Amino acid sequence: MKTLRSYPVQGVGLGLRRDFFNEVLDTPDLAVDFMEIAPENWLQFGGKQGRQLRTLTERTPFVCHGLSLDLGGMKPLDMDYLKALKGFFAEHEIRAYTEHLSYCGDSGHLYDLMPIPFTEEAVFYVADRIRQVQDVLERKIGIENVSFYAMPSNQMNEQEFVTAVLNEADCELLFDVNNTYVNSINHQYDAQQYMQSMPSERMVYLHMAGHFDEAEDLKIDTHGQPVKQQVWDLLEQTYQTHGLIPTLLERDFNIPPLQELLAEIEQIRAYQQAWSKSHVA
User: Which residue from 13, 126, 230, 258 has the highest number of Cβ atoms inside 10 Å of its Cβ?
Assistant: First the structure.
């Protein structure tokens, strides 16, 4: 029987957007257990906004999900940025830090998350960069399985590549349920089998989000729609396989009123409560 292991956060979380920052600030009893921010968007804020963020991070556990570390990129890691992150994490008592298993830089920032070639060489290259990050931050980080639309290489499949990086780097996994479903349709693999192959002991938390149905065989990971039923089904199956894992709702575009997001939060909570009831000793 899967039981709840020790996680840096618990329960149900929400990605914090500037669109509803003030509303969250003015709602001390908001029905979420933790919140997530992209640290790049907050590092430089001091003064009133910095104090407001500190008010929230004192009230609610926070995690950070990065956008620009460029783990798969060819340029050296930005050590000044990593040191700034370390200070930010200490100031706000950030419980976990995750990044995308991708690259996002070339001659400049690409403003997109590009898939890393699924090769053995790339496994060792990316794992080495992850270890460097962990050494500077003095903590393990989590990597997220990303959505992608062109297969980078056929030397390894996505499942083999992700698990090889996790093992080589000895890092954690931010398992994105929606990305798994999107990729399974676009690249014709079994989402449930992929999910079941992921290591439970490395999962730090889960992401849930919406996607756009471009066609029957093409799904676009937009984070701009409500979560689809197929993704809810995969979340339920994830709990059945891996146990009760903290789960966060992402919404980056077409931001609805906060109450609509909280309704989806309650759906996640309902799935967690159903799992708990079915696993009472």
Answer: 13
